[in-house]
């Protein structure tokens, strides 16, 4: 069949960049961690809820000889899963799984639950059809409710692309979880959590043995936390262990592949894409040895339409992803005459430096005039607002911690 955009590196490491969603290492590491847990269980009859184009279902069949059905709402993805791998497929929603109670020995829900708003209904349905094991994985995990709310506040201000264009209040991932949330959703049933991975890297270069070593390092000796993402296993009944588990090396070699997962002719287009991607990664790694220059005018100017803002725009000068600053991000903020920022109190600090124009720093009970060259340190959770009450443009730097520094993302 023709190439399809795959939800995992099914074409092998860096084979066909346009056809496999980027961040191969993340997909490899997550899958390896999940399958290490599955490798300890007697799976029986399996339902993969939100199984998309069949990547994990195929591995379950191939590695464990499991009887797997892939459930999804996307008919095209299901068609790909069936045609590519010959998988059993079923159209249906996690909110109303079209099977009777206790139909499956093991139910999987991999990186799906965070995309569905009614997580309580999803978990109810997953438990209803599962007889022995329920396994859920998600990146949307936090150590506390306070941290979860701080994360939503942070991405709303700093990563608007994560939010839906028709509803800026709801992010693309609409559900976020803590241990307390899962305890409530599972109605007090016992469960264990495992780490997915750490040390998220763009990509690495080397032969497939080196890639496997890197994936193994990303998934070893981890404590589950906000920085590792999590896999949850809820044992229900008759939880026999796998009588003949595979070795960790066999799992790793099967999952982290340098060739396609199914017969396909790698043509010139795919080879060219692979060469272009390797060249790009080589350049990215080579530049890490040098200081980073962000040329003037090279970053786009974004108009801020947030409630409470007036005449406000900004440019990201350094960000974690593009300019490799893992500790902090720098924004150049422009306030037009008679404009102002929203009044805010964020759970992270701000360091402001006035470049041109005069500003008023408005705090509860105090207003301070700021001039070019002034620097301001604003503590976390402190209410403030910047006003420009002059007829000239105000420009200043706003330096904040990176998303990795605060949340391990």
Features:
2 domains, 11 helices, Jelly Rolls, 7-stranded mixed sheet, single chain, alpha+beta
Total individual domains: 2
CATH superfamily of the largest domain: Vaccinia Virus protein VP39
Task: From the 3D structure, determine the CATH topology of the largest domain.
Answer: Rossmann fold
* Element pattern in H and E: HEHEHEEHEHEEHEHEHHEEHEEEEEEEH
Number of strands: 18
Describe the structure.
The protein folds into 2 domains: 233 residues, Rossmann fold, CATH 3.40.50; 106 residues, Jelly Rolls, CATH 2.60.120.10. The chain has 11 helices and 18 strands. α4 links the parallel β4 and β5.
Secondary structure layout plus pairing:
Blueprint: H1 24-38, E1 45-49, H2 55-64, E2 67-72, H3 75-85, E3 88-91, E4 104-110, H4 119-129, E5 130-138, H5 145-158, E6 163-164, E7 167-171, H6 179-185, E8 192-195, H7 208-218, E9 230-235, H8 248-255, H9 268-287, E10 302-303, E11 310-318, H10 320-323, E12 328-340, E13 350-356, E14 359-363, E15 366-370, E16 375-378, E17 385-387, E18 394-401, H11 403-407
Parallel strand pairs: 1-2, 1-4, 2-3, 4-5
Antiparallel strand pairs: 5-9, 6-7, 8-9, 10-11, 11-12, 12-18, 13-16, 13-18, 14-15, 14-17
Helix pairs in contact: 1-7, 1-8
Write a brief structural summary.
By secondary structure, the protein is an alpha+beta fold. It has 11 helices and 18 strands.
């Amino acid at each position: 069949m023709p190439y399809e955009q795959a939800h995992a590196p099914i074409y092998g490491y860096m084979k066909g960049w346009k056809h496999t969603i980027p961040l191969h290492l993340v997909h490899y590491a997550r899958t390896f961690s999940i399958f290490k847990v599955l490798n300890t269980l007697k799976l029986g009859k399996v339902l993969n809820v939100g199984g998309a184009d069949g990547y994990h279902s195929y591995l379950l069949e191939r590695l464990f000889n499991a009887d797997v059905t892939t459930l999804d709402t996307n008919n095209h993805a299901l068609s790909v899963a069936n045609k590519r791998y010959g998988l059993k497929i079923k159209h249906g929603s996690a909110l109303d799984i079209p099977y009777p109670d206790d139909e499956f020995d093991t139910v999987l829900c991999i990186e799906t639950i965070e995309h569905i708003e009614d997580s309580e209904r999803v978990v109810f349905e997953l438990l209803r059809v599962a007889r022995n094991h329920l396994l859920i994985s998600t990146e949307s995990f936090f150590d506390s409710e306070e941290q979860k709310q701080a994360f939503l506040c942070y991405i709303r201000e700093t990563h608007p692309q994560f939010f839906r264009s028709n509803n800026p209040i709801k992010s693309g991932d609409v559900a976020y979880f803590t241990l307390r949330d899962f305890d409530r959703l599972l109605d007090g049933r016992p469960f264990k959590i495992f780490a997915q991975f750490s040390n998220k890297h763009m990509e690495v270069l080397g032969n497939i043995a080196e890639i496997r070593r890197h994936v193994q390092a990303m998934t070893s000796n981890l404590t589950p936390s906000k920085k590792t993402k999590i896999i949850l296993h809820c044992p229900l009944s008759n939880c026999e262990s796998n009588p003949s588990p595979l070795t960790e090396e066999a799992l790793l070699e099967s999952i982290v592949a340098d060739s396609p997962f199914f017969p396909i002719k790698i043509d010139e287009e795919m080879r060219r894409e692979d060469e272009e991607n390797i060249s790009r990664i080589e350049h990215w790694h080579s530049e890490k040895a040098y200081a980073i220059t962000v040329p003037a005018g090279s970053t786009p100017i974004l108009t801020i339409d947030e409630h409470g803002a007036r005449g406000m725009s900004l440019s990201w000068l350094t960000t974690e992803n593009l300019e490799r600053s893992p500790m902090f991000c720098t924004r150049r903020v422009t306030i037009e005459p008679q404009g102002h920022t929203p009044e805010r109190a964020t759970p992270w600090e701000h360091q402001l430096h006035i470049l041109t124009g005069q500003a008023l720093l408005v705090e509860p009970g105090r207003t301070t005039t700021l001039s070019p060259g002034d620097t301001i340190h604003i503590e976390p959770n402190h209410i403030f607002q910047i006003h420009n009450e002059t007829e000239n443009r105000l420009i200043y730097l706003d330096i904040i911690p990176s998303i990795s520094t605060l949340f391990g993302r």
